[in-house]
């Protein structure tokens, strides 16, 4: 229910932002924003999520104008504090592998409002809908104990689990010349334990040990440069 309400709010924001550029040309003729517009935008961003994970990514977008851009990001995510641990009477997943992680591509659309000019600073709102395409493969090592404390390492892997997720980001942006900073709220249906639940060892599915997290939200921070 909460996710549906959040999606409705952000979709309303996206619709509003799509309409704003249609009225922005007249305003732009009346005054120039401080923002030094260029078509190429590179950015580095990070996020902390409610799934006890973080995301780091580098992105490039081609800006068709000051308000609409299309591009993609290459990123990495990892769980910081795991919930659960796969283990049996004589085996357990290695500690270093008990925090799921993956790399991903994230195609996205940038939608920005016309900026409010405050001296040398431009301030506005933005929305960035996108999709996260995770690597459709994950693996881990299991410690199989023979005679304590001796053990053998067993490699397990899977191509199952969620590799495609939809997310939305929205918030406030600030531009000082070609340099920009934006911060806001993100939500996604990315489940950080989805792939791990498809691992198994000695007849034990790891779904027994890891929770389902079908809804994720978090805080998002981005630094960008136009050239």
Topology:
Elements: H1 2-30, E1 40-49, E2 53-63, E3 68-79, E4 91-93, E5 101-112, E6 116-118, E7 121-134, E8 138-145, E9 151-158, E10 164-176, E11 179-188, E12 200-201, E13 204-205, E14 216-226
Antiparallel strand pairs: 1-2, 1-14, 2-3, 3-5, 4-8, 5-7, 6-7, 7-10, 8-9, 10-11, 11-14, 12-13
Explain how this protein is built.
The chain is mostly beta strands and 227 residues long. Helices cover 13% and strands 52% of the residues. It is built from one helix and 14 strands. The protein has one helix at residues 2-30, and strands at residues 40-49, 53-63, 68-79, 91-93, 101-112, 116-118, 121-134, 138-145, 151-158, 164-176, 179-188, 200-201, 204-205, 216-226. The strands form three sheets. Strands 1-2-3-5-7-10-11-14 form an eight-stranded antiparallel β-barrel. β8 and β9 form a beta hairpin. The protein is elongated, with a radius of gyration of 22 Å. Mean pLDDT is 89; it is low at 20-31.
- Percent strand: over 45%
Ends distance: 42 Å
The gross shape turns out to be: elongated
Quaternary state, please? single chain
What's the alpha carbon Rg, rounded to whole Å?
22 Å
* Poorly predicted parts: 20-31
**Order of helical and strand elements:** HEEEEEEEEEEEEEE
- Tell me how many strands there are: 14
Q: Helical proportion?
A: 10-25%
- What kind of sheet is the major sheet? 8 strands, antiparallel, barrel
Helical stretch tally: 1
